[in-house]
Amino acid sequence: MSAIAIAGSRFIIVGGASLVGSATAAELLDAGAREVVLFDNFSLGSDAAIAHLKDHPRLRLVRGDVLRMPDLLDAMRGMDGALLLAAYMTLNMDRDAWGGLDVNIRGVQQALEAARATGVKKVVFASSNAVYGYGPGVKGDLVEETPFFSAGAPPAAILYGASKIIGEQLCRHYKRKHGLDYVVLRYSTVYGERQHYRAANALYIIETYDKVKRGERPQVFGDGSETKHFVYVGDLARANRMAFESAATDVAVNTSGPRPMTTLELVRMVTKLAGGGVEPDFVGEEPGKVRLTSGGAFRIAHEEAERVIGWKPQVEMEEGLARLIAWKEGNEGRGQ
Amino acid sequence: MSAIAIAGSRFIIVGGASLVGSATAAELLDAGAREVVLFDNFSLGSDAAIAHLKDHPRLRLVRGDVLRMPDLLDAMRGMDGALLLAAYMTLNMDRDAWGGLDVNIRGVQQALEAARATGVKKVVFASSNAVYGYGPGVKGDLVEETPFFSAGAPPAAILYGASKIIGEQLCRHYKRKHGLDYVVLRYSTVYGERQHYRAANALYIIETYDKVKRGERPQVFGDGSETKHFVYVGDLARANRMAFESAATDVAVNTSGPRPMTTLELVRMVTKLAGGGVEPDFVGEEPGKVRLTSGGAFRIAHEEAERVIGWKPQVEMEEGLARLIAWKEGNEGRGQ
């Protein structure tokens, strides 16, 4: 039986001091979780991401490392569910491929092994739409069977996508070999309150907003027709909860926002929220940057997630961006 | 300058006590290499694979492990070229995913780092047509830009393919970050003298031959229309040599045999070589086995290899199988 009632259960969030980790912790605590453990080594995670939660009586913070098996074994003992978030994304993978492969592959191996050894009932693994890859092949509806396109993409982006493919398959492997139940959620690009500055696409929102606030014109690379398909962090927190609650196991589904948009639409939306009044500046390709986006128009289909765990996204981009910006404005005065 | 004249140069073959390793060592020695080092931990490699070479005056055997950085650094010092063969294939990946990811990912990281640190001029990395994946998506001409299909494939097969994708990208990463020249060769299924028993597809040749020799009917799974695209080991040894000799760098090409064939054609060919006289037994899907082959008809295109390193396959399957079987018959009496 792989369904976990949230109320009265204990959860560990590996890589918990993060955007998705803190939102999911709040979601699980609100649903009556007996305990939520945020496990993080704070190399990428931050105190700021969890400042609003850290005095919660049912939340426990554990400083630990996914590369240290004793840390994982100690922290997972007694847990009902484990959410595996700890990962390098592409920008960090480019800077430090060794560290990224360690965390994204060895870290997942160890977390799954620790979950198995300590009797965790269900794992939710945070995968990514990066498993569909990059470049002109990525177009139309991206469904769960879409292959991984990589021709011409930067090494770090392919390493990231392939590391997520491996993480997913390690989950399947542990299910087959050891019966460990799991759900893989393929997150699209996450944004929302407590946004960090490590993800190229989400960073673009913040950079655009800051430019407009300074009275500068925001930059659009290429002709602005490139697709972005974000998902609001609160929607993902709900998806994580529902993945634990549902009886589903041994399955991978996309969790994307209500709809994709073009870069130009996104920039216009952020410009409006920042006060408007400026037109975007269409520039060429950004030199020397790791490019992460596809040339084609695509949509990350999330219908399968509704069928499998009953989830669909609720927060439209306008609303989610407004929340992100309200949080950003509210926090800057506090020096975070 | 990434072209290496074989005559007078020194080469290390990591994972050298193997089918491809021993054939490539002979190829390089015949071309006048000053020294060839076979580096192997003998966990998968075997003395039998290199018995015919081991007294060669310009060959040196080093017992070492790709997971031990000091072993690699010691062995690579002074080498001009490094051929990276050490890998688990799918059957071993299924038995021991941890070991497989260690060797296929960490092992490649370490070998590349050791090559960089010791000033190796060029690396040839043995990748695989497994980077195109499995299942019904794999059809038609598989060219170097073909994506990775994995829906429905067994975890171990996907782990293997994804580990090869990562190995290739690590080569690209080391080229970009450190200028280390490399050529990736995507081998199709290798067969030939000194055939080992670890690769599912090549194993099928041996099993079929042995059945017919015992007077039994060879088994064909499904309707026999599944594609196989093998490459003869001597052709691959030549491809490895030519990859070192060519000025090509920062590129990945397919190295497959002259043409694909169906399983039924293969079985008829092996049956004939074994003395013939029996008809294949068409059975259903093989229960409980890791399935590695595609449902569709495909051809692994090798035209790019000719353009890039001047290589094309020379040995037709009939000829290569005859050599494999002559070797097998000649060796069984010697207890190898």
Automatic annotation (TrEMBL), chains A, B:
Family: Belongs to the NAD(P)-dependent epimerase/dehydratase family.
Pathway of action: Bacterial outer membrane biogenesis; LPS O-antigen biosynthesis
The species this protein was found in: Plastoroseomonas hellenica
Gene3D superfamilies registered for this protein in UniProt: NAD(P)-binding Rossmann-like Domain, UDP-galactose 4-epimerase, domain 1
NAD-dependent epimerase/dehydratase domain ranges (all copies): 12-248
Chain segments annotated as coiled-coil in the UniProt record: none
Protein name per its UniProtKB record: NAD-dependent epimerase/dehydratase family protein
